[in-house]
Every structure is written in structure tokens, then in C-alpha cells.
Automatic annotation (TrEMBL):
It is found in: Golgi apparatus membrane. The lineage of its organism: Eukaryota, Metazoa, Chordata, Craniata, Vertebrata. Keywords: Carbohydrate metabolism, Glycoprotein, Golgi apparatus, Membrane, Signal-anchor, Transferase, Transmembrane, Transmembrane helix. This is Carbohydrate sulfotransferase. It comes from Psophia crepitans (common trumpeter). It is an enzyme of class 2 (transferase).
Length: 165
């Protein structure tokens, strides 16, 4: 879509006709990750200023969805999957297989563009870490987190998420 690349422009700054033209001309790819794993990652990267994961989760829950940081805000409120028809949804933990398929679909060579992914190691590590961190939370925190991310859990196949139960 022809546009001036002088500054970063948010989609909401365009009129509906321009938005439809842009979205129709792009291949739209959405990268998604289990919301509980996003929380763990944010906490591990130091964005959680609390000493424990449970305290960090309590801060997240207390902030509410409207005041939430983009690091842990529900994905459906960030990417609007019900409004934008994404061509591909790529799940964290399956990057190598899904990105290879995506690159082949758009006609790009996969062998030279893809870095070495360790998807199985990442899945195992996050599975173990999720189990440890989840055990730190109270039943009420677990229930509130499941409610906080209910639309993400309904929109994407996070079947092995600790929040799905």
C-alpha cells in the first residue's frame, strides 16, 4: 500500500477506506504465545519489580486490562483477530516448522533465512518453568488469570496452557 514512510503511523490514524486497502494488500502474520508464558517471560526479563512471581501476578491482576502493559495485555486486545483477517497465525514453540511453511508459501528460500531454532528445548523449558511458577500462585490468582486471559484462550489453541483448566 503506497504510503509515506516518514514516521510510524498507527492503523487507527487512517480512514476506513485506507485501512481496508492496506490490510487487503499485505500478507498479515500474527505471532502468538501462551499468555502464561508471556507473563513468565516478562517477569524473567525484569519487568516485574516484585521479588516473587506471585507478587508480580498480583500487580498484573490489580492493574486490570485497560491499564495493562503491552508485555502482558491480552493478545486479542492488541491484535484484534476478530477484525483483522490474518493470513497466518504462528505459535511460539513451533516457529521452525511454521516459519518454514510461511516462507515457502511466499516464495522465499527457507534454508538461508531461518536461524537455528530449538523449539523442543524451548517448549520443555517453558513447560517446566510454567509448572514451577504456577505452583506459586494461589487458587484465586489462578482463577483471576484464567478470567483475565479468557478471550486469548478462546481465540487461540493454547490447549496445554496452565490457564486453560
Amino acid at each position: 500500500y503506497p504510503q509515506q514512510h516518514t514516521r510510524e503511523t498507527k492503523l487507527g490514524e487512517y480512514n476506513l477506506t485506507e485501512i481496508e486497502a492496506m490490510l487487503g494488500s499485505y500478507t498479515k502474520v500474527l505471532f502468538v504465545r501462551d499468555p502464561f508464558q508471556r507473563l513468565i517471560s516478562t517477569f524473567m526479563q525484569g519487568m516485574g519489580s516484585r521479588p516473587s512471581f506471585s507478587s508480580f501476578v498480583q500487580d498484573v491482576l490489580d492493574s486490570g486490562q485497560h491499564n495493562a502493559s503491552t508485555a502482558w495485555k491480552p493478545l486479542v486486545s492488541l491484535c484484534r483477530p476478530c477484525l483483522v483477517q490474518y493470513d497466518y497465525v504462528v505459535m511460539f514453540g513451533f516457529l521452525r516448522q511454521e516459519l518454514g511453511h510461511l516462507l515457502r508459501r511466499v516464495g522465499l528460500p527457507t534454508d538461508t533465512l531461518l536461524p537455528k531454532f530449538t523449539d523442543s528445548q524451548a517448549r520443555w523449558t517453558y513447560s517446566w518453568l510454567s509448572e514451577q511458577m504456577f505452583s506459586e500462585l494461589s487458587l484465586q490468582q489462578k482463577q483471576r488469570l484464567s478470567h483475565f486471559y479468557r478471550w486469548d484462550l478462546a481465540a487461540f489453541p493454547f490447549s496445554s496452557s496452565f490457564l486453560s483448566d
